[in-house]
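Name: SGNH/GDSL hydrolase family protein
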Amino acid sequence: MRKRSRRTRGVLAVVAAAVLGVAGCDAVGGDSAAPSESAKPSPKPTPLWDRSPGSVAAVGDSITRGFDACDVLSDCPEASWATGASPEVDSLAVRLLGRSGAARRSWNYAVTGARMADLPGQMAQAVRREPQLVTVMVGANDACRSTPSAMTPVSAFRADFEDSLRSLRKALPKAQVFVASVPNLKRLWSEGRTSPMGKQVWKLGICPSMLGDADALDPAATLRRDTVQKRVEDYNKVLKEVCAEDERCRYDGGAVYDYRFGTAQLSRWDYFHPSVNGQARLAEIAYRTVTAKKP
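Structure predicted for SGNH/GDSL hydrolase family protein:
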């Protein structure tokens, strides 16, 4: 009986060990890896914003064409803040792609005198190049009309901007967009009116709603300029709001509007458009926004 009892106890011990072993596995979790196995790291999600895009297309108006930066009353695309090749400007495209890369993979579809209504057409041209980044700077000419009453309505401005982004997004779902704010036109008037030559050029028809009768400070002139300035602020609000609805769009946060252009940053011919120095400052703002870790 003793031998049988010892044998029985031995069998029970083996069974108990087996049960404990099973319980030990269940303690880790039925589907969990054993502690000895190394867990594989989860792949990092692809960021929505690429801070080093491989190609750039620019759309917009005379500022992006470098108007009056090099010669009087003429475009100077080589001095463009967005795509120009001038070493003095060090454009956004050159900063992102290098000089040779910018020459091959950047395109400028901006047109002097363009308004927001022209943006859908420019965008259609740009998407044919399949750029990874599109820069937008437009709106000054919507405010720079013959009179304040002729300015583009805010609702129309919004509709055309939304249409432009929709067409871009339909053609290029992953393309990124940098949107520059409309410059502070009243600030430009304040700086440029100190130049007799600048005021003579303004009489040729440069932004008459703001620059007309440059020396007039009567209530009517003040109201006219304030009305134009308010419309510029409304345009910038639209740019900010519409851009915020697109996860691959970055607005400059009003940086261009807030930049205090001095006479060194303004064309020596019209004291309104950016000079080469001013174009370089615009390039800095754009590069800082595009390469920021967060907008």
